[in-house]
Batch of 3 targets.
Target 1
Amino acid sequence: MNQSLPSQRSCCFLFLSISVITALILLINVSFKIVLVEGLVFSVNGLICPLIAGLYLLALRNCSIKEQRHLLNISLLTLYLFCIGVYVLINLPAAEYMHDNPVYQIIFQDIPKKFFATTIAFALSFYLPHLLVYPKSSKKSPTPKQCMLLALLGGISFFGLDFFLLFSGTHLQSFKHIFIDSFMIASLILLLIGIFYLAFLLKYQNLLTPERGSEQLPLYHYFICVAIVVMLICLACEYRIVTIINKYMVLSASSLFFPITLVISTILGELWGYRVNLKLCLILIATQFTFDALLMGIVALPSPTFCNLNHFYNYIMLKRLPAASLTLFIAFISNAMLLNYLKHSKWNLHRPLRILIANFCSNSLLCLIDYGLLFGGIYPYDQVINLVVNVWHYKLFTTLITLPFILWFCAYMEKNKSLTLQYD
């Protein structure tokens, strides 16, 4: 179907949504990370919470009221999906030969507590104030002063609530010292954000705000956001190997949910075409690379001995970063190119056959490349081969199971031509 190119503001909305998703999931992953630098002992929350507030400030200035609300909804959806997905995967029975490194479990400890703390803090600091200041019926744009107050005060509140909900009752050493240092760093970052924002206003104070009220958000933006969350769930549990069906089948935990991203890629390719599918591929690779690089950088920061994840990440991250990027590129590019080529080929293949061929090839490439790079040298050769075969069978099964849904959804969308997300 021929679709018009997205507007500049819709691209800005997509970029901000992806950035907030990445920052929130990064926050959950390193919630209990404590940094020790030159006598300062602070939580990583003091770095990431102000970053999220800065992204929220950009959304307040560059997006309409309804786009802002969509961004907040996507943020809450991200927290729900990620925490529930990771919680399900880590509670599946682990394979007997899995290297159960105790350090590896630190990132997964207290997932319900991390979810509760981050979700409550985000809702009370950003979501609820936005609803109170700009109710659903409101059409007026926020003033520059309101934007700064909502973002900076929300950032301080977000950090404070998240810190107390996370660390209260954990018997953290030097709790007051860590909170004061973290609060000072968070306040300094927010102050710098406020200064840059005011400097921008002074320089571009006559910049006109575009008319807001008739905008339409492409539906595929939501699909891309869901695909990113699922991908980050899979990355979080990539080295975990589980057993299902009475311990008969051994699978990697990441393979259980990853077919959802391929379903989204197929839907985008069929409804919006090759360019949007390629856009999804590039966004997934860029998000994965950015997320892993930030995760490596944060974990590499020096920590007290009672809270140190460095040994685990030094062991896996340097291998995972290039392996995941290469695997995503090959799997999604092959799926997008095959869908596009078969759609315009001389054979005139029907949609179900096109989807089966494209998904079969991309899943096969994914299994052969990904697990060889990730688990080679960690587990014996025969166990890796057995894992690859089991995952390939599982992915083929999910392709067949999800095919009727893809066909129904594409037919429904083409019939109703509802390829944009209409605002109330």
Note: The chain has one domain: 8-421.
Target 2
Amino acid sequence: MFKEPPIVIKGILFDLNGTLIDIYTTESDDQLYRVTTNYLDYYGVKIAPCELKRRFFELNRMQRQQSEEDFPEFDVAKIFQQIIGDYHTRPLENTAELARSTAVVFRAAGRYKLECYDGVYEIMRDLKKRFLLGAVSDGQSLWAVPELQSVNLEDFFQTVVVSGDLGYRKPDIRLFKQALDALQLAPQEVIFVGNDMYRDVYGAHAVGMKTVFFKSNQGDHSYHGADADYIIYNFNELPRAIEFLQ
């Protein structure tokens, strides 16, 4: 009887925050709204911190509610562009650019931690020699890409897919498929590594990838119907997981 050859793993896809990057940010701290309104004031945008906070969450919620997507993602630049348009007191040449820079200030003011988990650099250097690597992350490119650069991870990846560019987030299978298409690999040839049972494991399994769940200090650690092929509790355990799944 003909026996099909085993499928060879050729690529590894990663979630970013909570998987490779140990990050802590907040959108609830009053201090970040004070900093952001001070920044906007230099451009003639007059809004009180408490009002900015209210409007930020209101517009965020409205974007998601008005989306036709099952798993909608917000667009932070559009939120700030709307706020700038509503509260500016003098003509502005480029509200879109100011919205983007305001979003960066907002993120910076609310960021308290940004570093890689132990073992990430050494393991990623080794994996890059043997596999095609990519990332699939929920978030905003305005934040995700500079943060990747800040922790010196950007050059490891052949592709980086960020939900904010597309308007929908994990577990939507289109995010995973876009990364697979960029690597020109089939789902069966790729392992997905993530720290959220629903967004990462459930989503990647739905596409047909094997999964490694990193039980880190972030993410949902359980979801009914989601079972990882391998669970690690420290990033240094990842090579063993990949060897097991090959």
Note: The chain has a mean pLDDT of 95.
Target 3
Amino acid sequence: MDGVLLVAHGSLRNGADTPLRAVVSELNATWKVERNEPPKALGCFLNYGEPLLEAGFAKLAATGATTIRVQPYFLFGGQYTRRDLPKRLRDMDRRWPGVGSVLGPEIAEHPAWTRAVMELALSAIDPSDPEQGCLFVVHGSRYEPAVEQVRRMTGRLRELLSPVPVATGYLDVEQPDVLTAASNLYDEGIRRLCVVPVLLSAGRHTREDVPKAIGLFQNRYPDCAVVLTDHLGETTFLTPILHDLVSSTVEAIGLDSVAVEATGMPP
């Protein structure tokens, strides 16, 4: 493995790519310590930002890389990872026939990734409070792989956070939307609500859409206390998960050991 591309969607918002660049920096620092000939990791983007995917691939190819591991910096298997990214990689394989590309899985395919999501909630909830609830906010997708990955995430978080009621709200495409999901929890008796944006970048959804939806909820239910956590891209627990995915070690490690390594916590 000569090179690694972490590929994000990209955003027009200033600073939205900060989480990706931080992860790339951490991966390069880790590999420099672990390996005599460490691979070079670069961050790039599908649609917005610099460098774009093709420019990042060309940069690694120019350094003499013969194999490039392309790791989606995407949570779920929607159109970008299951359609657009493979198509563009096929085009690059034809352009650089001497460089092989290997496409990795989405972050949600790592068995311990939901524990990274859970970490954001743990510091903001009181499991002993019968009025405590937790709402996880995702983007939403029409692609069945993404729909199923979100279902698995929600089910796993309900297990991990029990007895705290857990719900998922969608920013787009799927239902219930964020306001409806939060309102449903309120109707169940929740008066302390923790909201976790399961989003990777500090773009429009994180900075505007989630706070707007929560503001509407608070206007409707002023007696419910709401805590909005950082978004997932700000958690340090993603770095070892991406390290595992890039290194193709997940299949060779048991679920329990991966969970401990990635989060420092038992499963």
Note: The longest helix spans residues 144-161.
